[in-house]
Amino acid sequence: MSDDLEKLFEKLPFFLYDHLVKHMYADQLIEIVLDLGRRPEARFPTGPEYLSQKVISWQDLDYTTKRISKFSTENRAGIERTLHRISCIRNRQFLITGLTCRVGRSIFGAISVIRDLLESGQSILILGKPGVGKTTIIREIGRVLADEMEKRVVVIDTSNEIAGESDIPHSGIGRARRMQVAKTELQHQVMIEAVENHMPQVIIIDEIGTELEVLAARTIAEKGVQLVGTTHGNCLQNLIKNPPLADLIGGIQYVTLSDDEAKRRKTQKTVLERKAYPAFEILIEINQQNSWTIHEDVKTSIDLLLRGDSFMEQIRFFSLPEKIKIFSERTQPQYGSLSNNQTFFPNLTWSSVNTLKHENSLKLKTKLLIIYPYSISNNLLKEVLLRMGINFILTNEVKKASIILGLKKHLNKNISLTQIATKYNIPIYSFNSISYYQLVRLFSKISY
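Above: the chain's sequence. Below: its structure in token form.
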């Protein structure tokens, strides 16, 4: 491991330097937070810890900022020949009132668990929430591809987080070449420039986040260059529901099926399908630092997920490079098909939500709830049901519904709807007005 902690600590006020160099868990440090008028704080994997009784003053912040490089337009700075990053918080007068000193590390052997995936030559997308270690992983990937597999690797380093602040790249990326990006919004241009000017076999990109960057990634993939990139998210489903990023895994679109095809699939006529071939063939979800979920065939996983079918995913656990456990499991989607349908359940009579008393314990999370929404927002319904983990379908056919939801004033005017509900024994729940809280309250009462 190479972390150059001494170079970071010496930029801090002496009372912090003295404490940190003696700290028994310094090698596990994630970041140091200095906020004006507050006690300085260190953050470790086990939680935060105050570093002093003394509060941070203007002089302390000024002392630190004068010893590091200038802040960019993204309010980030670095320390020469290290991987550390310092980000600042400014007030309305643009004066610095807080600093986040993020520890950057080059950890050799960090990607031994996915070495076989690198050797496949396929493009890999790494998905994880902020702070989980995505940048550390792609830095080591760059080194392994360049040094050990002897490939021509170009790193697109937008914020100098991958290869450090200096014009000379940090040794953590090995023989890989680094292209710096003057402004964040120009990242997509530098990605294309790297392919056109420097003949790479592999392009490494950190934090793909805009539609232009996604388009550039697809363009690079179509030129036959292997991509290794990262983006924010928890799982594959997050990408499907994120319009700017969905094209990374092929994009999605509504398709109208023929009557015969809809019957064969046992779905409604309008369904969601993958629009194109994914730019990344392999997807890695960083659940925890020592637990990764692997989708070795993104195309198949997406197709099965959109149909509401179960799919195989691979889990890899590791503690040390020589202690790796790999197993596969079949995963059921957290919600049914992502088509225009979505789900729910029971057979009751007309009920007002405010007086609902239902004693049957109906387990919505294990049943499919087919909802006919009447004069209410589909988007609000989807948000509530997805957050509650309920398996559901929204339908336009009343007879297929297991529940009807709507505003009371509109339901009272639709006599034919109530007649159909009575005939087919479909419960109707009415609202005087609908809010997120009321829907949660309804589904919670029905659930238990």
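The mean pLDDT is 83.
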